[in-house]
Amino acid sequence: MTEQKPGFIYPRLCIAYFLEFAIWGSWAISLAAYAGGVLKFPGPQIGWLYAAFPIGAVISPLFISPIADRYFAAQKVISVLHLLGAACLIIAGILCGAGKATFPILMALMLLQGICFAPTLALVNTVVFKNMPSPTMGPYVFMFGTIGWICVNLITAFFLKGADTPGFFFVAGVCSILLALYALTLPNTPPKGAPAPGEKADALGLGALVMLKDPGFLIFAVLVFLASIPACNYFFPAVGTFLTERGYPAPIALATLNQVSEIALMAALPFAIGRFGLKNVILNGMGAWSVRYFFFAQPHFVLTILGMLLHGFCYSFLYVAAYMYAERKAPPSLKASAQGLMVFLMIGVGQVLGSLSYGFMFKLAGTEQGHDWFNIWTYPAIWIAICFVAFLILGQNPKEEKE
User: Which range, of 17-31, 36-50, 74-88, 358-372, averages the lowest pLDDT?
Assistant: First the structure.
């Protein structure tokens, strides 16, 4: 492959990130509304459909990541995995369109897609970080992932009848094929190779468990994990159905306000950490999740809009800041393991429990007229508020650790 100038590489990395999150965003909002409204799946089954991705995130590091790390260039693994994922998504769309999508079949397809997709998040990051012209450009690359999420949802909302048809599966499948082909043109990113003698692979971050002996890190890890349970994978399956049942216009398009605010707050995160410290930033993230859910519980359109605009605080100031907290707290030899542990807790176990919790609440709060959204939003709001108070009292600002 010919050497490429840094100025040319940057926009190409942005395109890769755009497509990566366009795939995820294509179904993340629409699937629950389609499964509940068109397929008539009960709440627990919808919860399991959304648990498929984090289950994949837990399973894939055990099998796919070691192979990718040792034997194959990152861009080639990205290509193969996205082709397999595209097949799952397109088959799901065909079966839904033909009226043959039973829950076991759809669950199996989403689980396989999750196993294929989850490792590509880390692999795309590997390509980006190894080939980025400057580390300071990172947030500007990541921003294109959010833009991709917004674009595919607007396409689904205005050209494919939103969540009333399985068109979102085909949008996701096409984006996955495009990225599979495009990945082969990205800068070559060779495998890291087998661990050095005496070194162990640590895909799940279990090596960082020793850090839990530090009371400050233990409090942080437990509370951000607990706060993450009713966060992203409770919110995303709920929001499409919530906006639809409330009778708000273009619900799938309206939900993109979440990502619009994310762009702005992601850019503001470094300033906020420098000005207020990581503890206060994470408190802000927890508080934003609780406040937005209290807003959603009220039947007022303006409060709903304000709640969605809080998403930038919710995601950037809780999830991204938590990764930065672990990075700062971990000694050099455990930094990678610490990140693996946070992903395992917040994206893996936390999101599985979150999606199953939503499925349970969705069934419990069902009525003949729709769903009791006051209770669906109020209980997780109280849960996260408790985490907020506990971290306010017990949490600490991390100090840079040394060996």
Answer: 358-372
